[in-house]
Amino acid sequence: MSEAAQIGVLGAGAWGTALAQMLASDGRAVRIWAREPEVVEAINAKHENPIFLPNHPLSPSIVATDDLNSMNGMEALLVVTPAQHMRSVLEQLDNPGALILCSKGIEVSSGSFMLDIAATLFPDAAIAVLAGPNFAHEVATAQPAAATLACREDALWEKLAPMIARPHFRPYHSPDPVGAEIGGAVKNVLAIACGVVDGLGLGQNARAALISRGFAEMVRFGVACGAEAETLSGLSGLGDLVLTCSSESSRNFSFGRALGQGQSAESLMTGRTTVAEGAHTAPVLQQVARDHGVEMPIVDSVCALLSGETEAASIVTDLLARPLGSE
Ligand SMILES: NC(=O)C1=CN([C@@H]2O[C@H](COP(=O)(O)OP(=O)(O)OC[C@H]3O[C@@H](n4cnc5c(N)ncnc54)[C@H](O)[C@@H]3O)[C@@H](O)[C@H]2O)C=CC1
Ligand SMILES: O=C(CO)COP(=O)(O)O
């Protein structure tokens, strides 16, 4: 029997489950909250999560629960719900300990970043952001990965880093949680655009151009929202952008690819159990960017495609037809 868990994971989708497995890879006790009773049952009885992370055996030191109350009072709690559900889940806690935000998105109903939601709900809590180029299935199989663990206070980094670091998972400190979370939220929308280009068969040059110009949008937006440009050049910004824009393992890239191949956004969203965060974030990102006076033409194109206002083929023509200017 292992000791009581000091670290918890809120949300047992692919990423929450993979993080729990990474944390438990040295036998440490980890408690994970799952929304679905069948996920709780499968993790506890069979040490697997066939719904959200199939074919990955899990450590028996991971204990799942459907009781949110039992997630209070832990030393650290990784928050890994989809962005649109983070508020409603966190609202049910009253004393969650240090929060490590791992969701990548902007709340549609309020235009809020995850950091702002968590800080409003728990003004006294220590809050960090964990973000980087990290596909769940690779982290779950202990393939090497690195991520940004961003928090303003050095003391919090010193407390959390040894709780999170494992031989195959290396966190790097950043003092800029705003930048770390913006990189993760924006890259999902840009990955949809890269998927569209792939689905249309437009080639590698076009994709590299989109990644570079998308990164310029990310930096403009981030800096306008108070991020450091340096953070956006790191793991949680450029690193995650490159990963997500280059692989069919990305749900956002695959979503965009299907759009590029002619499927509608509506049909791709219907009945979906896994999350393509960029599809939710795109319109609210566009709005927040406009509020800050920031131009994001690639994000605008993704929004037009998602709303059915334009077709996949014409978004690329429209981008190429923009007035010529400096890089
Ligand atoms: N999968 C990955 O490789 C990575 C995912 N992320 C981020 O982690 C977050 C979670 O994504 P995944 O774990 O991949 O999810 P997933 O797509 O594997 O699973 C969907 C999740 O949504 C939850 N859910 C559905 N309806 C809900 C509701 N009403 N209230 C609360 N939860 C609800 C389900 O319980 C499940 O945990 C996202 O923001 C994603 O961008 C970050 C890094 C890597
Ligand atoms: O955030 C991720 C990798 O860092 C996962 O990307 P997708 O949500 O597009 O699968």
Q: What would you note in describing this structure?
A:
It catalyses: sn-glycerol 3-phosphate + NAD(+) = dihydroxyacetone phosphate + NADH + H(+); sn-glycerol 3-phosphate + NADP(+) = dihydroxyacetone phosphate + NADPH + H(+). One of its GO terms (molecular function) is NAD binding. It is found in: Cytoplasm. Catalyzes the reduction of the glycolytic intermediate dihydroxyacetone phosphate (DHAP) to sn-glycerol 3-phosphate (G3P), the key precursor for phospholipid synthesis. Its EC number is 1.1.1.94. By secondary structure, the protein is an alpha/beta fold. The protein folds into two domains: 169 residues, Rossmann fold; 143 residues, N-(1-d-carboxylethyl)-l-norvaline Dehydrogenase, domain 2 (Orthogonal Bundle), CATH 1.10.1040.10. Helix content is 48%, strand content 11%. It has 15 helices and eight strands. It has an eight-stranded mixed beta sheet with strand order 3-2-1-4-5-6-7-8, sandwiched between helices. Helix 7 packs parallel to helix 10, helix 7 crosses helix 13 and helix 13 crosses helix 14. The radius of gyration is 19 Å and the shape is globular. The structure holds 1,4-dihydronicotinamide adenine dinucleotide and 1,3-dihydroxyacetonephosphate. The site of 1,3-dihydroxyacetonephosphate (13P) has 13 residues, from helix 7, helix 10 and helix 11.
